[in-house]
Amino acid sequence: MAKFVEVTLVKEVTDGTTEDFEAATSQEGGYTVIGESKGVTRAEFYAASNTMYRPSLVVTIWADEYAGETRAIIDGEVYTVIRTYPVGDKIELTCQQKGADENAFTEFG
Fold first, then answer.
1. CA distances from 85 to 16, 30, 54, 72 (A)
2. pLDDT reported for residue 84
3. Fewer CB within 10 Å: C terminus or N terminus of the chain?
């Protein structure tokens, strides 16, 4: 069952590397839109597990409100956008809860 939620979209920017040769990142801006949240289907969850991702939820927003942001804050929880899928005038953001398996995101993202 879908529900309407406030989604704060945040773009993460790479600022170079640190002394340990890891990417130094910072967050840029952020704005809030209204989206429709729903659970991840069983088929999508198992298909994603083959790529080491762990999708938590899918949020649908208007396509013109999305500009490639990599983070979404929904109900106080931080998510990583792991996949997008256009659906007419809208776009589905498949999200993984931050910390669920961050190594997978850095290896394949």
1. 29, 21, 17, 16
2. 93
3. N
